[in-house]
Amino acid sequence: xxxxxxxxxxxxxxxxxxxxxxxxxxxxxxxxxxxxxxxxxxxxxxxxxxxxxxxxxxxxxxxxxxxxxxxxxxxxxxxxxxxxxxxxxxxxxxxxxxxxxxxxxxxxxxxxxxxxxxxxxxxxxxxxxxxxxxxxxxxxxxxxxxxxxxxxxxxxxxxxxxxxxxxxxxxxxxxxxxxxxxxxxxxxxxxxxxxxxxxxxxxxxxxxxxxxx
Length: 213
Description:
This protein has 6 helices and 5 strands; from the N terminus they run βββααβαβααα. By secondary structure, the chain is of the alpha/beta class. It has a 5-stranded mixed sheet with strand order 3-2-1-4-5, sandwiched between helices. α3 links the parallel β4 (about 110-115) and β5 (about 140-150). α4 crosses α6 and α5 crosses α6.
């Protein structure tokens, strides 16, 4: 991509928001396999509105000796052994995602990425565990800070479940596509952008109303 019209380095304290969603074979990041990961990059347009600019996702081969919880697989509908998953190993998956994220950080004059997720403690725990397993030296992400769209949804739309927030916010939602990492990441990104842009309009209106005369 070309240099953005308005770099994001001043908007989020030098961090680039990257929306991440991870589908797994359980809840333990050290034992259960990471099966699918998606990352969505958002940037400002010429009007100062935040929007999606890039999307990346991949299926991931379960790491050696990982555990596969049948209840988790039933919930997300993933068959780790399906021949057409086109899955790649964890290190290749992370490197594939990290490369464009690093480019986006650079072109926005940011210092690093910050993970945006819906209840992101889950995603950041699995991401950090995979980084540790694969011995990747430089993660583009802040190791523990994140933005939570469940909290933002509760504040702005009085809902915390992603599907319900999407409905109240006027976003399209397809239950048949939910729990795909890319679909959930895109919807989380749309929600994050909508909240940020709504706040920008609120700030602009407040500034106009404070002007004399």
